[in-house]
Specification:
The protein is an alpha+beta fold and 343 residues long. The protein has three domains: 55 residues; 148 residues, no CATH class; 55 residues. Helices cover 53% and strands 17% of the residues. It contains eight helices and nine strands. A hairpin with a 7-residue loop joins strand 6 and strand 7. Helix 6 packs antiparallel against helix 7. The longest helix has 51 residues. About 12% of the residues have low confidence.
Length: 343
């Protein structure tokens, strides 16, 4: 070692920095064991995430099915009406009343009682019936009788769609209009055309709508009369006369619209609509009565189908983005590999 190197070594030893005691203590203290982080490879993570997602989806569907299966309409709930063998249950007056007759009540449908609102109020009645007959000959006869029943009660058949395919089955789709006071008789007679598969009746209160339209018509008539009186003044300035004439034309147009709407409301209250479907045994199958378990499974399957649609939609939306991200990642990886090989 040369003299210069020895001199530098002595200087470094003489002026060596001294670490604080706290730093010495921390360095000499035993180090804690490193914390191991739990991680899974991407493939194992996918194998765990997929079953977990399926379990969550099935659980959500079952919960939805259980909740919905307990919330079906019954005769004890307000606003509902179920006709049975001995007649009808009285329901309070409301804006919309509905009657649903199940297939098991077919033997007691000759005298059907409809849900009703007070006779002094205007209301519209809707009825929907499905009737099953034996063959196409009976189908043709029942279709003819249905139109005759409506005509005999002062109504008419708005449309008749008669279909008889080559396989021997057939169905007729009939839209009938009958006076509101004869709807009960019409349904009772139509129910004798065959075996009733299902029947729905509903009554909608139109009295409030009619009163509102009548009040608007009265107000518009007063406005038209006032505008005509003002236009009859000979001293009215020309500019103001033009404005009043425009207002009079608008009021007349609004009055005509309100009169037409009220006429439609009155017609709807005076005429009941009956949608009738008559078909052969294979064309119209009876509606199966589901118990609580059946309703639960039906709701669960429907919820699973909805989840599958949402997942498919998300996959369609996300797949282009995922493909673009995979291509970018692959391109960057190849670029890095090229740089490493070049160096």
């Amino acid at each position: 070692m040369s003299a210069n190197e020895m001199t530098v070594e002595r200087l470094l030893r003489a002026h060596a920095p001294h670490a604080p005691e706290g730093l010495r203590a921390r360095v000499l203290a035993p180090q804690p064991a490193p914390v191991r982080r739990w991680s899974l490879p991407p493939r194992r993570l996918a194998l765990v995430a997929l079953p977990a997602t399926l379990c969550i989806a099935v659980t959500a569907a079952l919960v939805t099915g259980i909740v919905r299966s307990g919330s079906h309409p019954s005769a004890d709930q307000p606003g509902s009406f179920v006709a049975g063998g001995s007649g009808a249950t009285t329901v309070p007056s409301s804006t919309h009343l509905r009657s649903i007759i199940a297939p098991q009540d077919n033997n007691a449908l000759k005298a059907v009682a409809t849900p009703s609102i007070a006779s002094s109020r205007l209301a519209h009645t809707d009825a929907s019936l499905q009737i099953r007959v034996g063959d196409t000959d009976a189908l043709s006869a029942a279709t003819t009788k249905a139109t005759r029943i409506a005509t005999s009660l002062g109504g008419y058949a708005k449309s008749v769609d008669y279909r008889t395919p080559k396989n021997g089955n057939g169905a007729a789709y009939i839209e009938l209009r009958v006076p509101a006071q004869n709807v009960k008789t019409a349904i009772s007679r139509l129910s004798g055309l065959g075996t009733i598969v299902s029947q729905q009746l509903s009554v909608t209160d139109l009295q409030g709508k009619l009163e509102t339209q009548s009040a608007q018509i009265a107000q518009l008539r007063r406005r038209v009369a006032a505008l005509r009186t003002a236009l009859a003044d000979p001293a009215l300035p020309d500019a103001q006369r033009v404005l009043l004439q425009i207002q009079l034309a608008e009021s007349k147009r609004a009055l005509a619209q309100r009169l037409s709407a009220r006429k439609g409301t009155v017609t709807a209250g005076a005429t009941a609509r009956i949608s009738l479907v008559i078909g052969t045994e294979k064309a119209i199958a009876p509606v199966a009565h589901r118990g609580r378990l059946g309703r639960m499974l039906h709701s669960a399957v429907g919820f699973l189908a909805l989840e599958a649609m949402v997942a498919l939609y998300a996959l369609i939306v996300i797949s282009p983005l995922a493909l673009a991200a995979a291509l970018i990642w692959l391109w960057r990886r190849r670029s890095v590999e090229r740089l490493l090989h070049a160096s």
